[in-house]
């Protein structure tokens, strides 16, 4: 017996079916191909920043040489983002549980600590001990990492840097200048260069941190090694007169035109290029610049003409000239969920070989032990390596203990401090407000 | 067909899927975002409710005040520039260039299709002082004026932004207003001319009132676009120097995605939505009154 539906009911059913099908199609289209799981990785994915080329190049070298076996099992895949976008990218990936196997862990240690607290960062001390390679890390690098990351080893020391002022020996000699030992001598040397038509300092105002590092340098020399720890602990404020004094000194250099024209528009590469092409007498920078100094294509003045001096002493200050700001570069860590045996093989290989590869092929100093004899690329590299090995007390940098917001505010306003669009007091107040906001 | 469309259930069934999809992709995220305004946290730490704390913070936050002031100032100046430049160009096309305007229209429209980042870089180079002297500073130097660090102070960088955005978008408004002017009947213009109206008098008494509807539409487009400006500022100044060129959109983006404070970021987004809504309402009311009076 055939059953015939009434036409109105048939029409309604057809419409309902059409609607349901279209919704199902839409739902399927929106579904995508499924989120990637960070467990059991198929690649040794590494998210880094565009600006840092040394680590990714050294890892690529290892993947073809000493770590080829690890690479065959888990191929290295490098992805980069501009440093300014790193924090956004990490937060989004972390929110989606899609962090890569290895990643640059944020511009401020605060973000890494946040990631670690939520269980997304591997306990590297335990992992390295389990793999039997913990002793491949330099003790000084471990202590710097722990000072930064709340007493825990949350990043690997792909770099181990001290900071100071690189200067052009030839320019200094031609202008009868000695290496300044005090702040006043440094300002006098800058004045001499300015009168001779040579730009005294090369600095990137676009990045901001090369300028704020000078503020913290002055603070450490004038107020002692705990100057910024006191701010972090609430015992002092950046708006206190003795802190504002540091900003005033750096602003005065800018007011006199010692950073050259348009410092706010100068990016990192341009600042480096100005110094390495002999257009500026001095450059405040970390020892990672040794890679650029060793590179004959970049360094037009010759590595033999580059010297390194510590940030000078402030007369009557509580700090000492042999206390160096140190860091481990951009913190690079490993995801907790994707750390399996194959990842472990890679990490073991890196711990044993990275120090040699970085120094030999890139003239870069890392916090991994150098297990074979490597001849230094030049005199200044030897000088910096000696300084690192004999340095007795390290200090951090201006933003090291700041929140992400205070770090951004500090670095984006640094150019205004030296161009005069912001007074030293305003600058310190703005950063202090950002510190208080989070 | 009439029987089907007369049936309420059929209408509900036809509209249902579209309404559902619209609700899912438009209304739900908006309500969701509003919900975030009452929370604190981010995707790493999770979210916790914090009542109206974000709203009171909004009132006290000097960065919001600065961003709101910059947004309004930028919207007013750029809207005036875009619409006035567009209107003058449209008048030029219709009354002077006439049929020969196609090439000029294309050339003036060209920046509209250029990627914003490319335009930003172009203007950076154009106004730069270091490491190379840009063309603008070269001209200044040639007439004996020292180079100006246009990106170093809030005052000068604001005007570079204004010039860039007007240059970038005036072609779009010119075409839009050109289409409006073409709609004015030739007989009306001819009779006005016979009555002795020429030049500015013709524009003031005939062309302007008759092109008011499209002029008001341009104004609404422009105001909303400039209040929500983001890409051109990120490309040219990234909000700097300091926060001198940070509009509400960029501050909202930084708060949410750089500082990881999604709740407060949503509150800033809500403020921007309210500002856009209010300004649009004001423009619509003004345009309605003008039309009835006209």
Protein traits:
heterodimer; A: 438 residues; alpha/beta; D-Maltodextrin-Binding Protein, domain 2; 2 domains; six-stranded mixed β-sheet; four-stranded mixed β-sheet; 18 helices; 10 strands; globular; B: 294 residues; mainly alpha; two-stranded antiparallel sheet; 14 helices; 76% helix; flat; transport (chain A); Bact_solute-bd_prot1 (chain A); signal (chain A)
Notes on the protein architecture:
Chain A: This is ABC-type glycerol-3-phosphate transport system substrate-binding protein. Chain A: InterPro entries: Bact_solute-bd_prot1, SBP. Chain A: Keywords: Signal, Transport. The complex is a heterodimer of chains A (438) and B (294). Chain A has helices at residues 7-31, 54-64, 68-73, 86-95, 109-117, 124-131, 139-148, 169-174, 183-195, 209-223, 227-232, 241-255, 268-276, 290-294, 341-362, 379-390, 404-419, 424-437, and strands at 44-49, 76-81, 102-104, 161-168, 199-202, 280-286, 306-309, 323-327, 332-334, 393-395. By secondary structure, chain A is α/β, with parallel strands linked by helices. In chain A, the strands form two sheets. In chain A, strands 4, 5, 6, 7, 8 and 10 form a six-stranded mixed beta sheet that branches. A four-stranded mixed beta sheet of chain A has the order 2-1-3-9, covered by helices on one side. Chain A has two domains: 8-160 and 328-370, D-Maltodextrin-Binding Protein, domain 2 (3-Layer(aba) Sandwich); 163-326 and 400-436, D-Maltodextrin-Binding Protein, domain 2 (3-Layer(aba) Sandwich), CATH 3.40.190. Chain B is mainly alpha-helical. In chain B, 76% of the residues lie in helices and 3% in strands. Chain B contains 14 helices and two strands. Chain B has helices spanning 2-5, 8-36, 53-60, 62-97, 102-113, 116-127, 135-142, 154-182, 186-194, 199-210, 212-227, 231-236, 248-258, 262-293; strands at residues 39-42, 46-49. Chain B has a two-stranded antiparallel ribbon with strand order 1-2. In chain B, α4 (62-97) crosses α8 (154-182). The longest helix of chain B is centred in the first third of the chain and has 36 residues, at 62-97. The two termini of chain B are 43 Å apart. At the A-B interface, α1, α4, α5, α13 and α17 of A face α2 and α13 of B.
């Amino acid at each position: 017996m055939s059953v015939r539906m009434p036409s109105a009911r048939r029409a309604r059913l057809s419409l309902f079916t059409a609607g349901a099908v279209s919704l199902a199609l839409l739902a399927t289209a929106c579904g995508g191909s499924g989120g990637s799981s960070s467990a059991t990785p198929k690649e040794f994915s590494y998210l880094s920043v565009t600006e840092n080329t040394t680590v990714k190049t050294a890892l690529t070298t290892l993947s073809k040489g000493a770590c080829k076996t690890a690479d065959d099992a888990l191929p290295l895949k490098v992805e980069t983002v501009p440093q300014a976008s790193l924090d956004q990218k990490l937060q989004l990936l972390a929110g989606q549980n899609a962090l890569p196997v290895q990643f640059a862990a944020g511009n401020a240690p605060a973000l890494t600590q946040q990631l670690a607290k939520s269980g997304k960062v591997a306990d590297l001390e335990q992992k390295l001990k389990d793999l039997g390679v913990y002793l491949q890390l330099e003790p000084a690098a471990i202590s710097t990492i722990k000072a930064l990351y709340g007493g825990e080893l949350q990043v690997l020391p792909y770099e181990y840097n001290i900071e100071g002022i690189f200067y052009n020996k030839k320019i200094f000699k031609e202008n009868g200048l000695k290496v300044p030992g005090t702040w006043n001598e440094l300002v006098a040397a800058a004045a001499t260069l300015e009168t001779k038509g040579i730009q005294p300092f090369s600095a990137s105002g676009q990045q901001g941190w090369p300028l704020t590092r000078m503020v913290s340098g002055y603070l450490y020399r004038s107020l002692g090694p705990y100057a910024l720890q006191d701010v972090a602990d609430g015992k002092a404020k950046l708006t206190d007169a003795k802190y504002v004094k540091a900003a005033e000194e750096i602003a005065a250099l800018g007011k006199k035109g010692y950073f050259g024209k348009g410092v706010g528009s100068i990016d990192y590469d341009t600042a480096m290029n100005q110094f390495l092409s002999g257009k500026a007498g001095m450059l405040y920078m970390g020892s990672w610049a040794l890679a650029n100094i060793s590179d004959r294509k970049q360094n037009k003045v010759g590595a033999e003409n580059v010297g390194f001096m510590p940030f000078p002493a402030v007369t009557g200050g509580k700090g000492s000239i042999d206390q160096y700001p140190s860091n481990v570069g951009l913190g690079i860590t490993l995801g907790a969920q994707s750390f399996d045996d194959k990842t472990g093989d890679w990490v073991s290989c890196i711990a044993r070989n990275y120090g040699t590869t970085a120094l030999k092929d890139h003239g870069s100093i890392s916090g991994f032990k150098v297990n074979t004899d490597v001849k230094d690329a030049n005199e200044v590299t030897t000088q910096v390596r000696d300084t690192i090995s004999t340095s007795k007390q390290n200090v951090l940098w201006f933003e090291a203990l700041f929140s992400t917001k205070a770090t951004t505010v500090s670095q984006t306003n640094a150019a205004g401090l030296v161009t005069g669009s912001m007074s030293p007091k305003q600058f310190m107040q703005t950063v202090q407000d950002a510190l208080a906001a989070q | 067909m009439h029987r089907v469309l007369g049936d309420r259930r059929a209408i509900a069934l036809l509209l249902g899927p579209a309404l559902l999809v619209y609700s899912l992709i438009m209304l739900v995220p908006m309500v969701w975002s509003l919900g975030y305004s009452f929370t604190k946290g981010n995707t790493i730490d999770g979210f916790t409710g914090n009542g109206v704390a974000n709203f009171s913070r909004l009132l006290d936050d000097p960065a919001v005040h600065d961003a709101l002031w910059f947004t309004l100032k930028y919207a007013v100046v750029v809207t005036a520039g875009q619409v006035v430049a567009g209107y003058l160009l449209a008048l030029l096309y219709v009354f002077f260039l006439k049929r020969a305007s196609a090439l000029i229209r294309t050339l003036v429209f060209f920046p509209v299709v250029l990627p914003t980042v490319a335009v930003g870089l172009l203007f950076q180079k154009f106004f730069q002082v270091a490491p190379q002297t840009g063309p603008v500073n070269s001209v200044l130097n040639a007439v004996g004026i020292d180079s100006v660090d246009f990106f170093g102070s809030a005052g000068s960088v604001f005007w570079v932004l204004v010039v860039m955005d007007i240059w970038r978008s005036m072609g779009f408004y010119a075409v839009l207003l050109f289409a409006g002017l073409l709609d004015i009947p030739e007989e009306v213009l001819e009779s006005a001319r016979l009555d002795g109206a020429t030049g500015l008098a013709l524009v003031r008494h005939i062309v302007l009132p008759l092109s008011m509807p499209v002029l008001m539409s341009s104004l609404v487009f422009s105001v909303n676009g400039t209040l929500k400006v983001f890409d051109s500022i990120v490309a040219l100044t990234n909000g700097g120097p300091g926060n001198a060129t940070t509009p509400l959109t960029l501050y909202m983006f930084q708060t949410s995605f750089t500082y990881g404070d999604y709740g407060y970021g949503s509150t800033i987004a809500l403020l921007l939505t309210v500002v856009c809504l209010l300004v649009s309402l004001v423009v619509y009311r003004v345009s309605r009154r003008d039309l009835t009076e006209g």
